[in-house]
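Fold this complex.
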Amino acid sequence: MAKFSGWIKEITPPPPSLQDNTGDVDRIIDFLKHKLDVDTVDIDMGLLKTLPTILRKSKYSIRIILVKDNSRWLIIGIMPKDEPCVAAGLAVDLGTTMIVIRLIDLLTGKTMGEASFLNPQRLVGPDILTRLHFADSNGGLEQLNRLIIDGLNQNIKKLSLSCGITENDIYIVSAAGNTAMTHLFLDLDPHWIIREPYIPVINSPNFLKASSIGLMTNIFSRVFVFPNIGSYFGGDLIAGILFSGLNKTDETAILVDVGTNAEVVLGNKNWLMACAGAAGPALEGGVTKMGMMAGPGVIDKVHPDPLTHGIKLHTIDDKTPIGICGSGLIDLAAYFFLSSVIDMRGKFIPSQCSGKLTKIDEINHFIVVSADESAGREALTISQVDLDSLIRSKAAMFTILETITTHVGVPLTDLAKFYVAGTFGSFINPESAIAIGMLPDLPMEKYKALGNSSLGGATMALLSPDSIEEINRIKNNITYMELNVNQEFMNRFSAAKFIPHTDPLRFPSVKIPVNSGR
Amino acid sequence: MAKFSGWIKEITPPPPSLQDNTGDVDRIIDFLKHKLDVDTVDIDMGLLKTLPTILRKSKYSIRIILVKDNSRWLIIGIMPKDEPCVAAGLAVDLGTTMIVIRLIDLLTGKTMGEASFLNPQRLVGPDILTRLHFADSNGGLEQLNRLIIDGLNQNIKKLSLSCGITENDIYIVSAAGNTAMTHLFLDLDPHWIIREPYIPVINSPNFLKASSIGLMTNIFSRVFVFPNIGSYFGGDLIAGILFSGLNKTDETAILVDVGTNAEVVLGNKNWLMACAGAAGPALEGGVTKMGMMAGPGVIDKVHPDPLTHGIKLHTIDDKTPIGICGSGLIDLAAYFFLSSVIDMRGKFIPSQCSGKLTKIDEINHFIVVSADESAGREALTISQVDLDSLIRSKAAMFTILETITTHVGVPLTDLAKFYVAGTFGSFINPESAIAIGMLPDLPMEKYKALGNSSLGGATMALLSPDSIEEINRIKNNITYMELNVNQEFMNRFSAAKFIPHTDPLRFPSVKIPVNSGR
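Structure:
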């Protein structure tokens, strides 16, 4: 059966004769133009070294690998049709903290394997801003770029081997990352993306020659780099939209990605509206003294314990607790509020704390895990400062959601789906987030965790040339709404700083305790 | 005055703001798309390293250098508008024997300088066939490619310096050569172009990155390589057509390029018909014992001397004679015929030779220059064998002209112009060529020598993006006529083997001597 779909085409153009002396390349290109019904088919000139021999050996029965760059198809691989087809694609999630790579069989679309590794740029700094400032120093950008490219090459080699192929079999790479990571990946100066008016060097890198950015995949392979629509709305989010399917639904839905920034996209198949705002760092590791990224021993879930009327902690991999991550903190805050440990302003009510409250430097701390029971032999606590920070974050989140939905005139309660992206989205318990008024009070079935939607979108880009068109369509369709921190925004923010909200009617499902201070 | 024409555009896109945060690259591309009214503008990604700084330094007033590859514009250079514009183009005639390069100021279209050098591949072999067989040997192709590329790089550097620029200022190269030379230039295997059914690797290389083929012009520069329409009809001839303007005339004209092959193009702005055939080697150097390429001391013109009733020889640079080139041989043969030294079959009439005929190995030789007067102290002679060879060549030439014009139904006498290309075309005296029946008996004013039409066409390609379109139009418009050596052809050939022809009515201007044998 002749394969003629996706990136791989099997063709048998008519062989040349004295009556038809068209050149080897032009013969293939003319045939493909006709087959694909397109105007422009180009070829990587490097393929011309082996092309004549392959054509004659295979008796003009060949397999061709193409990519589609805007309106132009480009031939990047040619092999005899009767040879087994080994052609892989590589999806890359260029995370600030973690890089995830996934190998895809381009012929079947099936996942061959996956691997992740810490972003080697953490050697320069854990947060992106430190890295961007470092990039300004002499040789800094090159160093950051080498770290990510070398890290990728090593891990691509390892993953390929473990999947029984070599990196030479990888023909298409698709990479999604935030705008800053994309700049560092492409060795582009990020200087202006963090300075007013915040201009990226490029919005739509499209397909690049992998070798031109140092990737050691097939010498003719191409990298598709997801477009961004500005410094604060990167390719990882475009990938997320593609993965969620938001761009294809009839009903309006919302996609939220929470990190240091809360990035929000609202829309349907006809329109997309995006905004991003500082959600506060409370939900990321490193802010509360005990807060950290999700990892073994980290408390990610907290349930009320009906037996003890206290709480039951869940740690990742069931290890002895070493800290608390964002989702655990939200669960805890919800429990605190629902069991009247804190009031509607998020302040501890000492009489309700069953002796678990202690003062350190004059600040109230709630002992979540005693020193005896913690891995570090030091009590894990949540302080009033931590809670205040969480309240600001959850208020910011809710305010952003309210602002964007109000802006387009779609009430939060009318949303058909509520997608939560990222690791945070996978761990978070929407019931807890609703209880503290961070997320709107929607029926549970509307909430959907997407997992690594950046990697998911990057994978989809590998599955068909149509995805690339869809990605560019998404990019061009998004209206970016600049968040104006005006009086209206501040009023909303102030109202959202209560648990769940100054207006409890917005959260009918939350059973507000009588002694919450209301 | 803003320059906005040709390859160089001066633009001032609106600077970014918080309200317009489009990326640097996308800002320029969007602006150019609008200005040029085109769908696709791409950029060489290497330019992105310096782009942000150039934009901000120049306050968004920039000069851009573009090439146009099919329907796609490609940015290959960016500089501040207030810097002086140094942007050169390089036209290259990839001759088998001689390489000629010419520097053009891309802004004004003016020639800056020109240089020529012997094709370094002559080290492998003087003729193209020897080189093509050598290319089949291990490492042979690479060696031939290095010879031409290294030779070009050295001479480009020298010529640039002599013109007060550096090779770094060269942004566009256009190269025209026959199909074999084009393959060796691009490091492409020429194996199949000399084997039935004679298939080139590529017909239309279009624009390539100069660095990808080893040229040391600007790192972002592109090379336009003239297309061929087969092994026997190369880019040099397409360049010749462009240079002649054949493709733009209302009336039908003809273009002839004579070497080992006679290449003929007939047509007008509506259609082009081409054919090529072996014209015999008599017109090139190396065949007659004394025959050679044009060069100092070579007899290139022969006039009847009214004083002595003998002949007056002209040598190139007025040096002591060392040999005879094709045009000299034709003049000589015409003189021989018109003064009854030879008969209509081209055979010497001993009684008419005034004692200048001598026998060497039983073969008649006519002493053109005595041993005393020649540079080599050896008599320069024309033998009966030389004359027989010339007769076959001239007969082949005329037969080809007759065949192609008959094929399209345009009598030779109806041609509006008769262009003769190449060095041969510059030296040849059409009156002599008519006298021996090599070229048709047209009024002198219809004959036009084009000189180096390959270089001329390559130069025109640098003058405007429209030329590139015209070149591709020419390539697509040519109908190639395979010369069928059938009975009809052989009949014509036999008739043309007489001087000027068996049918003297075709050559009314030639005063046929009474004792010509007719």
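Chain B is about 30% helix and 25% strand.
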